Amino acid sequence: MAQPNLIVFDLDGVLIDTTHGKEIYLAHKREHPEEAVFHYENGAYCYLDTEIADGATALNELSERGYSLIYLTGRRVSAKDATLQSMQNMKYPVNSCCLFMKSSKEDDTVEFKETMLKQYQDDYNIIAFVDDKESNRKAGENLDIPTYETVEELLQAIEEER
């Protein structure tokens, strides 16, 4: 039996623009550093997230075409509920079962992503890993997974294969 096709996405810088939230966080941090970090770690700034370049439309179309989608992010699990709500508000196809987050700030993001990609290779044909950071894409490349920096690059590659 053929394994289902899976596409793995990073969030920040790929699907979500966090610029405004970071500005508010940094301003808050100057005045109340401990409070700002606590709020950041728990997703209090996620409501300021914005969608990048029709990402939700593209991912919903991929999902409708039969691709399985998961999300690997360097965000902390303490912000999972807020991140899910933000993604749902932007209309991304997401639920808690397909969003994977680091357990703490100290966890190495590249190691986390490579470990998760390895786990999913057992049950899925991972056709792409989309991440805006070169160091994270190397995790996919190390596992012979095609990598892309943007959703647009991924969509172009899929169309070329059709």
Question: Would you give an account of this structure?
Answer:
The protein has 162 residues and is an alpha/beta fold. It has one domain (5-17, 50-161): HAD superfamily/HAD-like (Rossmann fold), CATH 3.40.50.1000. It has 7 helices and 7 strands; from the N terminus they run ββααβαβαβαβαβα. The strands form 2 sheets. It has a 5-stranded parallel β-sheet, with helices on both faces. α1 packs antiparallel against α2 and α5 (109-121) packs parallel to α6 (134-142). The chain is globular and about 55 Å long. The model has no long low-confidence stretch (mean pLDDT 95).
Question: What are its keywords?
Answer:
162 residues, alpha/beta, five-stranded parallel sheet
- CATH architecture, by name, is 3-Layer(aba) Sandwich
> Mean pLDDT score, rounded?
95
Main sheet strand line-up: 5-4-1-6-7
Largest sheet: 5 strands, parallel
Give a count of the beta strands, DSSP E runs of length 2 or more: 7
Relative strand content: 15-25%
Which sequence of SSEs, written as H and E, runs from N to C?
EEHHEHEHEHEHEH
CATH class: Alpha Beta
CATH topology: Rossmann fold
The computed structural class is alpha/beta
